[in-house]
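dumping these here so i dont lose them again. two proteins, back to back, each one seq then structure tokens. dont judge the mess
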Amino acid sequence: MIYNSIKHILPEFRFEGQYRAVEELTSGNINNTYHLTYDNRGKTVHYTLQHINQFVFKEPDKVMENILMVTMHLRDDLVRDGIDPHRHVLELISTRAGGVMLRDAAGDYWRAYRYIDNAVPYDTLEKPRHYYEIGRAFGEFQRRLRTFPAHQLNETIPNFHNTTRRFYAFVAAIAEDRVGRAGALEEEIEFFFERRKMMNEIVRRLKSGELPLRVTHNDTKSNNVLIDQTTDEAICVIDLDTVMPGSSLYDFGDAVRFGASAAAEDEEDLSKIHLDMEKYRLFTEGFLRETNGFLTEAEIGLLPLGVKVITCELAMRFLTDYIDGDRYFKVNSPTHNLVRAHAQMQLLRDIEAKEEDMYRVLFDIIREGA
């Protein structure tokens, strides 16, 4: 029973009212997440409770420091624009001790947010407008954080998008082959060796200063944006664990990789997987509406590179985790990470075939004054 696994945690947070129910939310790959229902003098109040994955996040205090700084900045920026922040930015619930994170007797870390009602994070977007709204939401996220000094943020996962380091980790996993899977993956391994130079392009440009360092979300899947069920507008970016210094190309690339794919991230039938150019266009329109004006010419001109790099990087990460014994991503079968890797590899092949079209669409939107 879910309640028995969290009942010792609930009294430690400043939840209002009496506990009524819990539901585990299973869409995330990293943390365990629970939707709590409380009754506060006849009024139903909802919260989100999360158990932080310490294998992924080695220093949870740094994760929470980033989240607190970023949400405070977003809240202040919204208020300056005359917008009520209540439904537009995550609100942390404090512990009884006055912090924003709890460490229990077993050494596990927990945090809680006020639940935003009448809003949904879609794994699969239901309407064309949603693609535009997702792009606009992540663009607004970067716009409102453009004045935040990115260097003040902690690297919650060091070298998260350092594809050079990711490649070295991939090579090390192959060499160690801790569960005996690498020997059957010759074609997959060669796929990433062939794209090694391309994967390093954003890292190289950040180091040279060609691309500026920005506050980036680094996990810009469509299900990390809440869509208001009444207005169909994107209202809040969620899942801020990986907010770190980075490149705008990372956020754009990952959002397109996930949201504009014609199939799920772990689709087994490779014939179903391709980049949907209409979804790409809608997302790009929304993103540029919010970012065109403060992103540099170099950033805007290289946005499709972000799609290639992040798709290739994630495919390689899935394969690395498969070779390493499935230690990072949650899996529902022994071959789940391999299926994910194959799916992303197929998506990348299609992205490479459509790269010229992606640039054409991007520059058409710019000329039209998005």
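---- next one ----
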Amino acid sequence: MNRDSPSNAACEIVLGIDLGTQGLKLVAFDAASAQVLGSVFARVENLTPAPGWLEQEPQQWWTTLCRLTRDLTAAKDIPRQAVVAIGLSGHMHSIVPLRADGSVAHNCIVWADTRSREQARRISVGANSPLWNPSIAPYSLAKILWLRERRPELSDEIAHILWSKDYLRYRLTGNIATEFSDASGTLMWDFAARAWDDALLADFELSPDLLPDARASSEAAGTLSERAAADLGLSVNTVVAYGGGDCACAVVGSGIPDSDTLLINAGTAVQVFEMRAEPRPFDHGDGVRYLFELGVEGRTFAIGALNSAGHSLEWWRRLLNERMTYAQFDALAADESPNPEGPIFLPFLQGTGTPRLLDGSFGSFVQLSATTDQRALARAVMDGVAFGVKHCAEALVKRGDLSAKKILFTGGLPKSPLMRQILANVFDGEVRFRSFSDMSALGAAAHGVVAAGLAPDARAWLAEFDYGEGRAASSPAFRERYTVTYERYKEWAARITSA
């Protein structure tokens, strides 16, 4: 999967670009075989001008992308003519306001920025139109209203709102546009009409002219401009796809699972993805879930989230001993068997998520006794994270019945052999795991391949991709213990989050 091709000069190569909250990653693929040729990564500076604020400089994205592209093509001996397509993925909800001349009017306000909580609250009570998603600070509409209210001097200057990967595409091609997945993550999208929600925009006196046209993710947005080609060291004939939001690209990169499969991306945080046949507006009775366009095939998907998964393991490992390896951490936890009477950990260090969304610090150990030791607490943290993932999955699936679902994990969390077995035990069945983790970059590359006419669709291109898949089955010996402990976990979670 990751072997370098000996004949890069003869390959047609596609680049998958993934702009994340922490950094920018660039992965090169052989367009014919979907083989990974190489990758590079660089951190992106996060600016915090005030508590709760998080901004990034779009110019830094561009400078970093140009440097990484040149570094990768030089390291892998890739001629400029060999790169035939580029696909883009970027963090969703994050807005980039542009002036009419294309200059940046304000730094990108990143999705995790919470300055617009008050605007989000007013949206939830002031909208006459039904909301398709819960109104929370990460959504773009709240950020746009904050800018209008708190930076009124910019209102007349802002001509366009773009999203993170859209700004990169603008610098690549001069194309000012977005696509369905990022549009759907703004709170301003009408899923039924597959268009901007003009009625909702009217509710808040926003001009539709502020928002760009939305297209399908695998459509070609154009080719590299002469300036961009020179900056990147690539050919002006390189096709650029519209691309997608990072969550949507991760689903595409996974091969677009069927509705009978739950895709669970488990890393620092967890996202649980379920394909939806018929989107419907948000209902508080469903618990918190987020609805998005996939950007291809006219499909939509729902997401449930757990904010602190791998983050909880890292936090506890670091508290025990900063020099402890993850293998040592696993060995410590493996010495302890699951025990319904023992400690239970609630992984809410950075708020909750799904099924109930709460900001604040709710992480907790409960059922502690005088005999509780490090081994028991380490095992409680691992079990508690797995319980949190299952609780999120049950809330996402109608009636909470996971028995009919196939469970597919990606991300770094299940790379631990012990965590793989714990997840299988908690989900009480067979679960699958994939070692390849750059799903958003892979999905972005798939869009680029289709845009360049090298494959009929993303599914076809990814059909033979080697994800490095493994399986784990639950242990009948622990079934009763985990069943009882999970019920106690849910009882404690309800108590802690309602206090």
